[in-house]
UniProtKB/TrEMBL annotation:
GO terms for biological process: DNA damage response; positive regulation of double-strand break repair; protein localization to site of double-strand break. Transmembrane segments: none annotated. InterPro entries: BRCT_dom_sf (IPR036420), Slf1 (IPR042479), TopBP1_BRCT_8 (IPR049936). It comes from the Eukaryota. This is BRCT domain-containing protein.
Length: 362
């Protein structure tokens, strides 16, 4: 009982501190459990005792030792009086506060029970409806998908956007950069897969759409992402050691890395691209999707500027290339470097991928 009183007392600052509580020991003796340091002076205690305890009752208490049960009942009654007193004091304080405005100070906050732990261990709860409303609308690309029209209809019915294939080539490039998801039967080395990997997009198995349609909303992507350990069932669809398996691992690896660092696969790259017109456009889109920059510099590259790499396929170039200048300016010339950089783990060093003609001039 004394322990209960000792713990409850700080919660009622309006009640004077009392040292008159005693508990009966097992041998019948009385021990004092409350600390002197927290209480008021002896005069205050005597004043409180004189106002609440009958002198005759005190005399009887000195001549006879109460039973443990009687002592407990007495203490419960006294505790009840304390609580009533605290309640009245609190009401009076609230009444005074109506006439005297006060700010929310630490004094007011201290009245709250300590057991509530108002300032610690709080867990923020976010309304899932609001959370879903704040999530950006997914924009989908599709590649190598059967019944593509049906998939597009499911995307739109769930509130998503489909990248339209009817857009012109120049506009299609910029629009596809805004895509957030790519759906594919299996990851293959085509432009949409490579640009999605370089940009850190979600690359998902088409079952994602079917299950989302069944649930009526877009589901968690991680359970359908190629290469993601949470979607281990997809691993069974890939031949061990195959290019498809390597691409699947690259999907998950690059998305996680880009999500953490905020830097896409080719961040900081300033590339010169020299190949056939068709290939040059493809490489350009991959570099840009990966956050790199393509410099508008043509052969013979006598002034390579600030280039950090030259993607060069000599067999497909019709103009003379000044390799010596590139060597002198320390601009490495590499062939199919972009694919290897995305797929290999870790990515290869650019100096290990130099074309033989460049290496011979070093």
């Amino acid at each position: 009982m004394a322990e209960l009183i000792h713990r409850c007392w700080p919660k009622f600052p309006h009640v004077p501190y009392m040292r008159s509580f005693h508990t009966n020991n097992q041998d019948g003796s009385q021990i004092e459990d409350l600390d002197d340091q927290a209480g008021p002076s002896g005069a205050d205690c005597r004043s409180l005792n004189n106002s609440s305890v009958d002198p005759n009752q005190g005399e009887k208490a000195r001549t006879s030792t109460p039973s443990p049960a009687a002592g407990m009942n007495t203490q419960l009654q006294e505790l009840h009086q304390i609580l009533d007193s605290a309640s009245k004091a609190s009401k009076e304080s609230d009444t005074n506060s109506l006439s005297t405005p006060r700010s929310h100070s630490a004094r007011n906050i201290a009245r709250a029970p300590e057991s509530l732990d108002l300032c610690t261990d709080l867990v923020e709860w976010v309304d899932p409806v609001i959370s879903n409303q704040q999530k950006p609308t997914p924009v989908f690309l599709l590649t190598s998908i059967d019944n593509q029209e049906q998939c597009e209809e499911m995307i739109r019915s769930l509130g998503g956007i489909v990248c339209s294939p009817q857009i012109s080539v120049s506009n299609s490039v910029s629009f596809e950069q805004n895509a957030t998801h790519l759906l594919c039967q299996q990851p293959s080395r085509n432009e949409k897969v490579l640009t999605s990997i370089a940009a850190g997009k979600w690359v998902l198995e088409k079952l994602y759409l079917e299950d989302s349609k069944r649930e009526g909303h877009f589901l968690n992507e991680e359970d359908y992402e190629w290469g993601n350990p949470k979607a281990s069932y997809l691993q069974k669809l890939l031949k061990p050691g195959s290019l498809n398996e390597q691409l699947a691992k690259a999907v998950y690896r690059w998305r996680c890395k880009i999500q953490i660092t905020g830097k896409k696969a080719f961040h900081g790259m300033k590339a010169i691209i020299c190949s056939s017109k068709e290939k040059a456009e493809l490489y350009k889109r991959i570099v840009i999707a990966g956050g790199g920059e393509v410099l508008n510099i043509s052969p013979p590259f006598s002034e390579p500027g600030c280039a950090t790499v030259c993607i060069l396929e000599l067999a497909k170039v019709q103009h003379r290339v000044d390799l010596q200048t590139l060597v002198d300016k320390k601009v490495p010339c590499v062939p199919l470097y972009l694919n290897n950089y995305l797929i290999s783990d870790p990515p290869p060093d650019v100096m290990d991928c130099l074309i033989p003609e460049y290496r011979a001039l070093q």
